[in-house]
Write a structure and sequence with these properties.
single chain, 203 residues, alpha+beta, Nucleoside Triphosphate Pyrophosphohydrolase, 8-stranded mixed beta sheet, 4 helices, 11 strands, globular, metal ion binding
């Protein structure tokens, strides 16, 4: 028979353990051009990646147990993806964390790169490009929406729950922002983070 002491210990252990599987840090890298103007550096994901190949993103990735903070994760990912020395990354701070549409806890980190030369990890990054910060300020994004729906699986016990709909049902709707800069389309989570950044620096 299970006891209340066993229940207490199991719950206490769950509270102590830190689950990194649904936490990610995203870096907003500012970089100066030849006119000393601030730009934001973006990556184009490698075509060989299984998840969103060819999409435009900011550097970042899942937090790991070896990372002491979201800033540690952001720096580690910058080094892995762009081949930058850590001393060439200047950290400004963090933006408020938020939950993405797919349930990830996102920690945006802002900083500046003091190096113009990169050694791209071609397994992850096809290329990089920059967009002037002033361009984002002067060009608001197109706003649309993404609907999230659910549908019962084929083995769902409809005999026990006869009122459950069998077809797709709308669950929620999320705002989606889309920027079109030259030949690049910046949207989804990346555009959302840019919006959060712009709101923070303009408030």
């Amino acid at each position: 028979m299970i006891t209340t002491a066993q229940i207490f210990n199991q719950i206490k252990n769950q509270i102590k353990s830190d689950d990194f599987s649904h936490k990610a840090a995203v870096f907003i890298p500012l970089i100066r051009d030849e006119y000393d103007r601030l730009n934001i550096l973006f990556e184009v994901r490698a075509a060989t990646l299984r998840w969103q190949p060819g999409d435009i993103c900011l550097p970042g990735g899942k937090m790991e147990a070896r990372d002491h903070s979201a800033i540690d994760t952001a720096i580690r990912e910058m080094i892995e993806e762009l081949g930058l020395p850590a001393e060439k990354i200047k950290i400004y701070g963090q933006l408020p964390a938020f939950i993405s549409a797919v349930g990830f806890e996102i920690y945006p980190v802002v900083g500046e790169l003091t190096c113009q030369q990169f050694r791209l990890n071609k397994d992850e990054v096809a290329q990089t490009f920059t967009v002037p910060l002033e361009w984002f300020i002067k060009n608001p994004p197109r706003k649309t929406a993404m609907e999230v729906a659910h549908k019962p699986a084929t083995d769902f016990p409809f005999e026990l729950l006869p009122n459950q709909a069998k077809d797709w049902q709308k669950r929620s709707q999320h705002d989606i922002y889309v920027y079109h800069y030259q030949n690049f389309v910046i949207w989804g989570l990346t555009a959302h983070i840019i919006q959060l950044f712009l709101h923070t620096i303009n408030s």
